[in-house]
Design goal:
Biased composition (Low complexity): 239-250
Strand order of the largest sheet: 1-3-4-8-10-9
Main location: nucleus
Subcellular location: Nucleus, Nuclear pore complex
GO cellular component, one term: nuclear pore
Shape: globular
Distance between the termini: 149 Å
Radius of gyration: 38 Å
Domain Peptidase S59: 12-144
Largest sheet: 6 strands, antiparallel
Length: 924
């Protein structure tokens, strides 16, 4: 049978399959019969949806274009009933269908969900989910015909009526009475000013009647609607003064369930809250302070009493209960309908109105808390004190290196000011030098004393990451001229090191593969040596097997020769070489199994070595725990051909990872540890950044969709607030053109915040200037920089070096003076505030401060010259100042009149002197 007749046929460019047709060809060649058992085969059409066939599917000799057709909101498989195979054969089998719906042509999502449930049930399918954001509708089918949403207007109208009919019936239905009473006089929707009837309608549109038998009223389930006094306790300042109203005994169903809000009914005003400020941070002074927040009770004395507020038992089920949300802060004030919100202050200060969920001994409360949230632990000691010497190495030195690289500038206009956005530009030819410079900085950090073991593991991992970036993305100088890197005998290649050696372009991928092999050997060397050191001399075969996992062939051959095992030493010397040797070993093992050889007479470790040399990795390490880097190396060194490209190796491992046949590329802090504290993590959360880099290299010209996960903190560090090195790695990779993205603002802002928490305001502004320009947010840079200048004014204004650096970055000095003016005004320095308002051009504000706070003091102190200079400056902009004539204009008129009077007096004195002299002359 011809090989071409085995594969499926796909002619339309709009359709796609996973695995692709090319991948099916590769797998069929390496694993004959693969096309008869393709797991989870997918066929789809761009912009319409896809079908994933569950289990193994036989796709041999199938014309996919004739069998599968995607239309608007529907998919047809085997439209011709005469050619449809029995259920379970071909493509007429169980599958998961995903269709992309055009939401513009359909009802609102709240009604559409119920309509999709009914449509799936009517067609014999099982509704799975619907995403109202992208319009993706998922459902399962047992076999195929035509499925989807028929684009007929009458069907849509009928579905809408079917959804609305039970809602109308339910609204006429009286709620049952069970005699329970609560302390609140209204239900939560009514308390928040919402229409309970509308909430009920929304609920019925969101949840299917057949699947939810519980009756819901006012937006709450029936078993949770009637709360007793033990379940809910109201003891707040608002209830103490109005106990008769809040503690009126009435069932919840006595709220406005039937009538809703009648026309003309006055809107219920929210109560004014008396909130207690609980300052529980040691850095904020006293342990407890109280503040009365109600505007209409300013004359009341402040009582130093403990305010419990609204409390809910910790065992109460809440939307954020559970292990995943153990540390979430619940805004109880929002639950009570107040205007206070959780907010962040400078330097990691969190202001919230609750306590931690599931904290022992505490419930949800409306008491206000101000806490210092822990920042990154990169440069902090056990007492959260910053190590200055380490901070310079971790932050300042890499930033200085980044600033020394070549940049391109983009000038943007912001009102009357301009900013120079920056971006690093670099060539792949100079990438090795850049990586080497970053590695030198990291090696200096390793020399710092008192570093924890987990910190050293992360620093060594950063070194390997920069080496991997050099290996995967750098290019060699002088065109095709080869410059040897690493050992000469790696990958079984002996290359000529003479100058002027020109290499064929086809050999360059093999050179990169050799460099990657060297990197992989160096990365796993310490783990191999650590495991070998724990073995006894008698277990030399296991010793050899461990050396092979790190491709230390010379050492493995020497161990076998020293034990007199010459034949094994001869085999080891040829390991990873030609495919013929692997084939001979594989055939020999098959002959032994066919002839019934008793393997009990052969050492188990020796059989594992033979299986590994034959390319059967799974049999060699079936019961052995091995890390993902060494397993990747085993596939590369002993299973795949030695001339296959690096991209195929990485994609093969990724494919096997999806099938669960290879170790998960866990982050280094999980893989190697040790961690200073326990960390919740499960496989599937994220890869190690090294594996992301490999996938990025193997992605070639396609759009890489894992950038956000790749550049998250957890891909390289257990510290969720540490972005100091991945920001540089992202910047360099983008500078050489490895990828391009305008959707990584979270990384920029997180790193800027990390710098701000350490008082490095100038570097934070430097990071903001490197954020890409977006047409839909053209003023984001201005807003961020002005916010940094105003919130952290005390930090940068007292550091001359930072202030000078900010000026060198091209930040308008008017923005700096505006921040200084607000800072001085806050601390009561009206003179300094006025001077800075003048410098930033806020003439109206400067005039107001001058007239209300500065003028009279300066006038009584006889500082007339200063008054004249200030008013003269303001006079040039008097058109922008309201009531100028009744303000500083009076001082201008006064000094002008005084000057003219002084001139007249001087003239009179002069003329008077001449007249007296004339009289004296006449008398004589």
């Amino acid at each position: 049978m011809a090989t071409d007749s085995v594969f499926p046929v796909l002619r339309s460019s709009e359709y796609f399959t996973r695995p692709s047709i090319d991948e099916l060809v590769e797998r069929e060649v390496s694993d004959p019969g693969y096309c008869s058992r393709v797991p989870n085969f997918i066929i789809g059409r761009a912009g319409y949806g896809q079908v994933r066939f569950l289990g193994n599917t036989d796709v041999r000799r199938i014309d996919l274009n004739d069998i599968v057709r995607f239309d608007k909101h529907s998919v047809v498989v085997y439209e011709d009933e005469t050619g449809k195979p029995p259920v379970g054969h071909g493509l007429n089998k169980a599958a998961e269908v995903s269709l992309l719906l055009n939401l513009k042509d359909l009802p609102e999502p709240s009604i559409l969900v119920e309509m999709l449930r009914c449509r799936a049930r009517k067609q014999g399918a099982r509704f799975l989910s619907f995403n109202p954001v992208n319009g993706k509708w998922k459902f399962e089918v047992d076999h195929f015909s035509r499925f989807g949403l028929v684009d007929e207007e009458e069907d849509v109208v009928m579905d809408e009526a079917a959804v609305r009919q039970p809602i109308a019936q339910l609204r006429e239905r009286d709620p049952p009475s069970n005699g329970y009473e609560i302390e609140l006089s209204h239900s939560l929707p009514a308390h928040l000013g919402l229409d309970p009837a509308k909430m009920q309608e929304m609920r019925m549109a969101m949840f299917c009647n057949e699947e939810d038998d519980e009756y819901m009223e006012d937006g709450f389930p029936s078993d949770e609607r009637y709360l007793s006094r033990e379940r809910m306790n109201v003891d707040s300042p608002t209830s103490s003064g109005k106990g008769s109203r809040l503690r009126s005994l009435s069932p919840l169903h006595m709220s406005s369930q039937k009538v809703g809000r009648r026309p003309g009914m006055p809107v219920r005003k929210e109560p004014h809250a008396l909130l207690e400020y609980n300052m529980n941070s040691s850095e904020l002074g006293p342990s407890t302070q109280v503040m009365l927040m109600s505007g209409q009770n300013k004359g009341f004395p402040v009582k130093m009493t403990k305010v419990e507020g609204f409390k809910l038992p910790a065992e109460q089920e809440t939307p954020v209960a559970g292990k995943m949300y153990t540390n979430c802060v619940v805004d109880a004030a929002l639950f009570m309908g107040r205007s206070f919100r959780v907010g962040w202050g400078p330097n990691g200060m969190l202001v919230h109105s609750g306590s931690l969920v599931n904290s022992p001994g505490t419930g949800l409360s409306s008491v206000i808390h101000i806490e210092k949230v822990a920042s990154d632990k990169v440069v902090h000691d056990d007492k959260s004190k910053v190590k200055e010497d380490l901070a310079e190495l971790v932050f300042s030195d890499p930033m200085d290196l980044h600033r020394s690289l070549d940049h391109e500038f983009l000038e943007t206009e912001s009102d009357s000011f301009g900013l120079k956005l920056q971006k690093v530009v670099a060539s792949r030819l100079v990438l090795p030098d850049i990586c080497r410079s970053y590695i030198d900085i990291i090696e200096k950090q390793l020399e710092v004393s008192d570093l924890s073991m987990s910190s050293r593991v992360l620093l060594m991992h950063q070194v390997t990451v920069w080496e991997l970036i050099r290996v995967l993305f750098s290019e060699r100088a002088n065109g095709n001229q080869f410059e040897p890197i690493g050992d000469d005998d790696q990958e079984g290649m002996v290359l000529d090191k003479k100058e002027g050696f020109n290499m064929d372009l086809d050999a360059l991928p093999l050179v990169r593969r050799a460099d990657f092999s060297n990197w992989l050997q160096d990365s796993v060397c310490h783990r191999v040596q650590g495991e070998v050191g724990s073995l006894s001399d008698a277990r030399y075969l296991e010793h050899i097997l461990l050396l092979l996992t790190g491709r230390q062939l010379d050492s493995a051959t020497e161990v076998a020769a020293s034990r007199g095992d010459v034949r094994l030493a001869n085999l080891l010397s040829q390991a990873g070489g030609s495919m013929s040797n692997r084939s001979d070993l594989s055939q020999q093992l098959d002959l032994w199994k066919t002839n019934g050889l008793d393997f009990n007479y052969i050492e188990e470790d020796r059989l594992k070595v033979y299986e590994l040399l034959a390319g059967n990795i799974q049999a060699a390490f079936l019961a052995s725990a091995i890390d993902w880097k060494r397993y990747l190396g085993l596939i590369m060194w002993y299973q795949l051909p030695p001339d296959i490209s690096l991209d195929i190796i990485i994609r093969s491992y990724h494919h096997l990872l999806g099938e669960g046949k290879v170790p998960y590329p866990v982050p280094v802090y999980i893989d190697e540890g040790p961690l200073d504290e326990a960390l919740q993590w499960s496989p599937g959360d994220r890869f190690d950044i090294s594996f992301y880099l490999m996938l990025l290299h193997a992605n070639q010209d396609e759009k890489f969709g894992l950038l956000k996960t790749m550049f998250s903190a957890f891909s390289s560090s257990y510290d969720p607030l540490d972005y100091h090195m991945i920001w540089h790695q992202r910047s360099i990779l983008e500078a050489i053109g490895a990828f391009s993205s305008n959707d990584l603002h979270l990384l920029d802002l997180s790193f800027a915040y990390q710098l701000l928490c350490l008082g490095k305001c100038h570097w934070a502004i430097y990071v903001i200037l490197h954020m890409p320009y977006l047409d839909d947010a053209p003023y984001i840079h201005e807003k961020l920089i002005r916010e940094v200048l105003s919130q952290y004014c005390e930090s940068w204004s007292k550091d001359d070096a930072q202030r000078q650096y900010i000026v060198e970055l091209g930040i308008p000095e008017e923005w700096m003076h505006e921040a200084l003016a607000l800072y001085h005004e806050y601390y009561g320095d009206q003179q300094g505030a006025m001077e800075n308002f003048i410098q930033c051009g806020n003439w109206k504000k400067a005039h107001t401060i001058f007239m209300t706070s500065a003028a009279h003091t300066m006038f009584l102190s006889s500082k007339h010259q200063e008054i004249w200079e200030i008013t003269s400056t303001l006079e040039n902009h008097k058109s922008e100042i309201a009531d100028w004539d009744l303000g500083a204009g009076i001082y201008i008129d006064f000094y002008t009149l005084k000057a003219s009077m002084q001139e007249e007096s001087a003239m009179d004195d002069l003329l008077g002197g001449k007249t007296n002299h004339a009289k004296i002359s006449l008398a004589v």
